[in-house]
Amino acid sequence: MADQEEEDLRMALRMSMQQWPPEPKRSMPRESGGAPMGSPDDSPEAKSRRLQRELRAAAAEKRLMMAGKVVSPARRNVAFSKEEKGGAAGGGGGDGRKVVSCGMELSDADANQLFSMVFGNGVSEGILARWCNQGIRFSPDPETFMGLVQHEGGPCGVLAAIQAFVLKYLIFIPDDLGKVEPNMPQNVGSRRSYESESVTSNKFSSLTEDGKARALVRSMVEILFSCGSNKRAVIATLSILGNDAEGSDSLKDDIITKALEGVSIESASDLQKILRVNTYSSMANAYPRLEAMIPVFRSRLGALLFLISALLSRGLDSIQADRDDPNLPLVTAPFGHASQEIVNLLLCGQAVPNVFDGRMDLEGGMSLKGISTCVEVGFLTLLESLNFCKVGQFLKCPKWPIWVVGSESHYTVLFALHTSVQDENELEGRESQIRKAFDAQDQSGGGGFISVEGFHQVLGETSIELPPEKLDHLCGAGFIVWSEFWQVLLDLDKRFGGLKDPTGSMGKKVFDLYHFNGIAKSVLNGNQAASGSEMPIQRPRLTKLTVSVPPRWTPEEFMADVVLPSGSGGGNDQNAKETATEVAKPEPPQHAPLVDCIRTRWPRAVCNWVGDPPSIV
Fold first, then answer.
1. Considering the entire predicted model, what is its pTM?
2. Percent of the chain at pLDDT above 90?
3. What DSSP string describes 85-149?
């Protein structure tokens, strides 16, 4: 092995002295602004590390060229071909295979802007390592077969967003996955109220590799075109790969792995050298290109390549215009997590930094940007339960019952198998109506309080008739807090616009949710645990939760974990009181931070599960 590496380095040196066009040369000095992590560009250590890295990359390139799998350096800087401007996805080769151009190289200005936008200045080696070592791969574990597995911290926001769309296709639109040439989004926006026969609560392992791959491709195409305002998608790939590698997927994976040996991204110039982009104006043309490039997205640069594809599909200038503060990097320090702008870009096509609905106008002509339209899959966050933000109805109530879940340091996915969990009962519908009217008057940035003038407008819009003493009490402080208003509504009979229901049936609801955490953690192997062996394995986690939404409760009663007293039923019928008590607490509830997230969507929910509590970190 050592002899082979020495021979590779010698060959790399000989190759570096050949008279090729300037672009492939790897001994060119970096620009003054391109030194990684702010180190002096002329230091001996930096020169030594750079030389070793470039020699390894050249050696890897040489091996692939000898195998006939790498594009000749003279062909690398290729202009857009006809199919990339909106024509056919690929021309026919002499042997009948489709040939697609390697793509265009980014300009110096675009490469610098892209790298700075994503990572900022002075990015650490640890952050770069996390984002350069995460592919988009399905879990090999039978219990989490439908999920994308994460091995590095940082890119979870990208993986979770893709995962949410993959689940949409696997659960709710499985019919088209069997089509070799699907007609893309004829049913993307439709919502089917049926129970999927292709997926059951504990049989995700029955999915086929082919079906999962098609769901992944369709998800990626949908996300990229959403970023491109449904007019275009930009697909980023690698310059060091050929266009028509032969063999099985595993062989392609081996080829790509070898091609990436010694390749690192530490500056904009590194990114410019290896990145090539193609633009497509129709989903039908983009689909076969992405399908062919799936082995590339499975590689260790896959998550980063998809993020770059989404950013370029939106347009770098448009990305900066979406943001409230374009000077901050999209990948946050110190741990390299995906920012809310990245998650919002992948979920709704715009890199806005906030999760409330619409735009919030501030004094002095300034405003904050939120979600402007309905979305396919939604978003919930633990931060809302801590009163740090307010998630709007667009993200809380998406077209499909699938949500990316954010914690302080990680993104996971929550989903249901049936669309009926989104259907509102009488209590939820009434609450949503009142809350929407209240939030429309809330100018506190989601703080949950409004002015007296705005409060009177809410009462008029929602037909609520408050007794004079309750009205005076709420308005006495000069502003109205949602939590106090909510308690008054709970004690106000439904005949006067309140939520008091003596029968206890107004808000009864029980359903199942599933939580997927893609990060590979050590868990006990079920088979081995059953036999007495406790050998941990690394795999993602899928947890089933039974969710019960009682018809009414007060915070004090819930935090004390007690059954509603008989006198709080709101009526004189003893049977009605017993019914309300039974619905309010069907079984002893369990608690985990995920439950707090679920309660931001279903405020009175209690949850139960089997085994370890679901983890959102």
1. 0.72
2. 49
3. GTS-S-EEPTTS-EE----BPPPHHHHHHHHHHHH-SS--HHHHHHHTS----B--SGGGTTSB-
